[in-house]
Design brief:
mainly alpha, single chain, 2 domains
């Protein structure tokens, strides 16, 4: 059972939602070489994480209290 606010019929709502779902699912069924670049993005994200993890406490620009707490830990 589908209810609408009256701007479209329930049949139209189901039809439109099915069309939208089909368009989204096409992304998974039409994967080709253009999506191979995604791996590069993942590697760059890992590099960013490594740089952040290598930062010193002073470079983090924390409050004095937080900075002192980390230095003492």
């Amino acid at each position: 059972e589908v209810w609408t606010n009256g701007s479209i019929s329930p049949e139209e709502a189901i039809s439109l939602s099915a069309q939208i779902l089909i368009e989204y699912l096409k992304l998974f069924t039409e994967i080709d070489d253009t999506y191979a670049e995604v791996e590069i993005l993942v590697e760059k994200e890992e590099e960013k994480k490594d740089k952040i993890l290598e930062m010193s406490i002073e470079e983090l620009e924390l409050s004095v209290r937080a900075s002192n707490g980390l230095k003492r830990a």
